[in-house]
Design brief:
The chain has 2 domains: 78 residues, no CATH class; 41 residues. Helices cover 41% and strands 38% of the residues. β3 and β4 form a beta hairpin. By secondary structure, it is α+β, with helices and mostly antiparallel strands. It is elongated and about 85 Å long. The strands form 2 sheets. Strands 3-4-5 form a 3-stranded antiparallel β-sheet.
């Protein structure tokens, strides 16, 4: 393993990955609003000492090193489409759907009243 992707704690080496840390308001796992700033971080799925997942934020020099050695890493963190827009689009789709369902019910009621009047 490359030392750049491991950290040592109490004599044990742990593998870490590159990720983006951001603050997010979500309801039922649907992201609605992102706030604060996005930062590149090294993280792990394991609890390491007092760290539970996120190990450290990366400095500008560390990000540039990773860009030079790995490539394909944007200089500024970019959230995935679902986190950035997915929840907003889903909520908009639900609102539009409820609007059209309400309109259909209203037109069905008007049609039912016309049928009743014409049969009497």
């Amino acid at each position: 393993m490359d030392d750049q992707y491991t950290i040592e704690y109490n004599g044990i080496r742990y593998h870490v990955d590159l990720g983006i840390k951001h603050d997010q308001l979500s309801i039922f796992w649907v992201p609605l609003f992102n706030y604060g700033s996005e930062k590149y971080v090294m993280f792990t799925d394991e609890k390491i000492g007092e760290y539970d997942g996120i190990c450290q934020e990366l400095s500008r020099a560390e990000i540039e090193y990773l860009q030079d050695t790995i490539g394909g890493i944007p200089s500024e963190p970019q959230l995935p489409f679902w986190d950035a827009w997915g929840g907003k689009l889903l909520v908009l789709l639900i609102i539009v759907g409820l609007f059209f369902i309400g309109r259909l019910r209203e037109s069905d009621e008007d049609f039912s009243e016309q049928v009743k009047e014409s049969t009497v």
